[in-house]
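Hi V.,

You were right to ask for the full record rather than a summary. Here it is.
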Amino acid sequence: MAQPSKLLSLLLLLLLLLGPPTTAGMEDPTFPHLGESSQPPPRACPPRCSCPRADTVDCDGLDLRVFPHNITKDAQQLSLQNNQLQELPYNELSRLSSLRTLNLHNNRISSEGLPDEAFESLTQLQHIYVAHNKLSVAPQFLPRSLRVADLAANQVTEIFPLTFGEKPELRSVYLHNNQLSNAGLPPDAFHGSEAITTLSLSNNQLSYLPPSLPPSLERLHLQNNLISKVPRGALSRQTHLRELYLQHNQLTDSGLDATTFSKLHRLEYLDLSHNRLATVPTGLPRTLAVLHLGRNHIQQVEAARLRGARGLRYLLLQHNQLGAAGLPAGALRPLRGLHTLHVYGNRLERVPLALPRRLQSLMLPHNRVAALGARDLAAMPGLAELNLAYNRLASAHVHHRAFRPLRALRTLDLAGNQLTRVPTGLPAGLHTLRLQRNQLRTLEPELLAGLDQLRELSLAHNRLRVGDIEPGTWHELRALQVLDLSHNDLSFVPPDLPEALEELHLQSNRISYVGPEAFLSTPSLRVLFLRANKLHMTSIAPEAFLGLPHLRVVDTTGNPEQVLIRLPPTAPHRPRAGGP
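Predicted structure:
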């Protein structure tokens, strides 16, 4: 027994010399090491919702019919839009005292399902979105902390003093597309909310401009109501207003007075279109940049009524009743900075005289202008766009120097007139020339000479035949990219087309054959329309498209037979072949 005792003593001595056994590389999965914290439990999130951050709960578009449980009380952003909710339980909503944004857009929530008392505990709420629901009245109380309130597209007939009142941080209120009348807006509806900049009341049933609007307003939307009157002084305090939308109402001259707009010293945009005004309103502010008066009953524009609006840049008078004397000479002279004038759809018989010299865009289509004299356009040397489409212009009554003063002109639209030839003296800088729907029977080289910057030329719906296009007609159109010769009487592709051409419209002609040399002069062609002609299977020479490496679309639908277009295999893309 002595030997085992001796061996045991040696082992004990060895352990003392080596020290305790090391635990490097070994961990106890049950107990954490000293100084380390355990993994936090996963955050609670309602079923099927997502919680990308500790303060965000997103339950958008889940077809929920019941308010979700298990929403953390620390939530600051809660989205429940695009569901089927009909009510919000008071006990669930009121405990979310940290909420800053509550999005309930596009549900089925009624006023009975939105308890007022639930908002009393939401003292930090800044944004509430309840648009596209079924509210019949607004909540009687919303938190004082509110910044944005969207109750649009409901059935609201009434709001209350503390719905939007006494909200010093409130910036934007959206109430459009409801059923609000003036009786549903209390006089103190916005009392104590002196920071509102945007108020939308469009598409309601207001019959006059609401009084006591916030003086801080910058944008006021009142379009699509039944407003026939702006009471005197209703806008006297809105000195910050920049945009005012009153279109699609029932305003008459008697519903406005000289002071209606006179104190709006920052107003830039005023839309009074689609009303019943017979004259231009008086008292327009100097700051006004855009005045929209289209679709009224205005018969004459008086210079005195525009004298105050000297900063006007855009004047829109389309679809009124302006006759021969509707724009007397000098009526717009006070508007020295006028950029654009729209008077289409009236009864003007000539281009108005003495228009502002800085005018750059003059839109006169659908009037009764029958002649252009040598000096009719001379007072507008900076004009870049002129639209005289669908008037009564005949070639015999267009002076050969009528367009010559317009050296800055880039777009000229003469479509829908009675022209039998291209006007002479066209400005060399033209980029777009529209002559469709006239009675053109001939194209002469000298009439298009010098138009080396022209990029688009429309000659559709005329009476042109290939024999009427004189040799050299296209010679100087070096920049032309789009040429429309559709709906004419062409029997084949006109020769010597411009080299830069990329888009060629030849549909609805009488073309029955496309020869091998038809497109030799147009190597940049990308799009070709040959639909509704008289083409057959053998009408197009196989070599016709060999020199067109950029061609992408060939439309041959609507011909007597299906026409298949085959390109060489080296082409990067095959164009689309059409059939009947």
